TrEMBL record:
<keyword id="KW-0408">Iron</keyword>
<dbReference type="GO" id="GO:0009055">
    <property type="term" value="F:electron transfer activity"/>
</dbReference>
<keyword id="KW-0732">Signal</keyword>
<dbReference type="GO" id="GO:0046872">
    <property type="term" value="F:metal ion binding"/>
</dbReference>
<dbReference type="GO" id="GO:0020037">
    <property type="term" value="F:heme binding"/>
</dbReference>
<feature type="domain" description="Cytochrome c">
    <location>
        <begin position="143"/>
        <end position="233"/>
    </location>
</feature>
<protein>
    <recommendedName>
        <fullName>Cytochrome c domain-containing protein</fullName>
    </recommendedName>
</protein>
<keyword id="KW-0479">Metal-binding</keyword>
<dbReference type="InterPro" id="IPR050597">
    <property type="entry name" value="Cytochrome_c_Oxidase_Subunit"/>
</dbReference>
<keyword id="KW-0349">Heme</keyword>
<feature type="signal peptide">
    <location>
        <begin position="1"/>
        <end position="24"/>
    </location>
</feature>
<feature type="domain" description="Cytochrome c">
    <location>
        <begin position="55"/>
        <end position="132"/>
    </location>
</feature>
<dbReference type="InterPro" id="IPR009056">
    <property type="entry name" value="Cyt_c-like_dom"/>
</dbReference>
<dbReference type="InterPro" id="IPR036909">
    <property type="entry name" value="Cyt_c-like_dom_sf"/>
</dbReference>
<dbReference type="Pfam" id="PF00034">
    <property type="entry name" value="Cytochrom_C"/>
</dbReference>
């Protein structure tokens, strides 16, 4: 286990204890570790040629509209539609499977994912993981950027919230496969996901870490950290990180 992964797992164990909201149920030990699931998807995606799925991403096929029609030609995202460029292949594949299985709820994405084969999901995941694109995001939610920077860098232990960087990396470019890049993500999307974890519409974070964190953040904090993360440099392509 390399040092980045070790750091992520140590953070996970700490957050499971400290970031759980009052009265919430603990994680069922029989449930599969979603972190390992992302690693498995990444290993499977490595055997797929992403070039074979470029047309699917750009133009769609049959009843499935193109990824680019919503996420942008360069995977940059827009508004409440997330940036995909530079996210890890394991993370993307895991989310597509979550949509297909109804674990993660979004009607548009459930429609698309349900029509994709597993190999197509893996191919699209690797296609976007290897895509490098400049940031198209900017602070737009009226968040306090200084407060957002403090939360990202140091967290706030008065409300039992750790630093974003403790799991998502010192540049917020993600760690391994399960902890995605947050840098240059569309702030409306980041905010919407924090809200979804808060009210239970999203439940698929490793070890339920994000549910506890989102519960602890005020609405102003959610806007602050979403805006701040949007100002960070975009992540490089996955293959350049692994070199």
């Amino acid at each position: 286990m390399n040092m980045k992964r070790l750091s992520a797992w140590l953070s996970s164990a700490l957050l499971l204890t400290l970031a759980q909201p009052a009265g919430a149920q603990t994680v069922d030990e029989d449930l599969p570790d979603e972190s390992y699931a992302a690693e498995i998807y990444a290993a499977e995606a490595a055997a797929v040629d992403p070039a074979e799925y470029a047309t699917l991403a750009r133009e769609g096929q049959g009843d499935v509209w193109s990824c680019a029609s919503c996420h942008g030609a360069k995977g940059e995202g827009n508004g409440n539609i997330p940036r995909l460029a530079g996210l890890s292949s394991g993370y993307i594949a895991k989310q597509l499977n979550a949509y297909a299985e109804g674990v993660r709820i979004n009607h548009n994405m459930q429609y698309v994912a349900d029509k994709l084969t597993q190999k197509e999901m893996l191919g699209l995941a690797r296609y976007y993981a290897e895509m490098e694109a400049p940031s198209a995001a900017e602070a737009e939610l009226g968040g306090d950027l200084q407060r957002g920077r403090e939360l990202a860098n140091h967290g706030d232990w008065d409300i039992e919230v750790p630093a974003c960087y403790s799991c998502h990396g010192s540049s917020a470019w993600g760690v391994e496969q399960a902890f995605p890049s947050l840098a240059a993500q569309q702030p409306a999307y980041t905010y919407a996901q924090l809200a979804a974890w808060t009210d239970g519409r999203r439940k698929n974070s490793p070890l339920m870490l994000m549910q506890g964190i989102a519960h602890a953040l005020s609405d102003a904090d959610k806007r602050a950290v979403a805006d701040y993360l949007a100002t960070l440099p975009a992540p490089p392509a996955e293959d350049s990180i692994n070199e």
